[in-house]
Amino acid sequence: MKRGSTGATQAPGAEAFIDALAERIAVRVVALLGNGAVQQSRLLNVDQAALYLGRTEDSVRHMQKAGKIPVVKLDGRVQFGVRELDQWIEHNKGS
User: What is the total count of domains within the chain?
Assistant: First the structure.
């Protein structure tokens, strides 16, 4: 047995097996992304919008209630469109 890059002991052939497995996973992920099987939602909830904007959830709620940020209301829920947030960011640059 030999030591791997992490210092852990590996069985003979383990590194080749791990590399082959990683390659298969990578190929599968690329195929899924290429087929549109994995898609980011265009609508974000408050905590997702906060992460997207680099703000706190309270800050996003305050901006939403003050009408300073565009929202989408669906079934009584407030959501934020990614495109609208991007437009809002562009419009407010340098302000």
Answer: 2
DSSP H helices in the chain: 14-34, 46-53, 57-65, 82-91
pLDDT exceeds 60 at position 37: no
CB < 8 Å & 24+ apart, contacts of 60-66:
none
Closest residue by Cα to residue 89 from 57, 46, 60: 60
User: Are 17 and 57 members of one domain?
Assistant: no
> Which phi and psi angles does 43 have, rounded to 5°?
-115, 135
The amino acid occupying position 11 is A
Residue 45 has pLDDT above 70, yes or no: yes
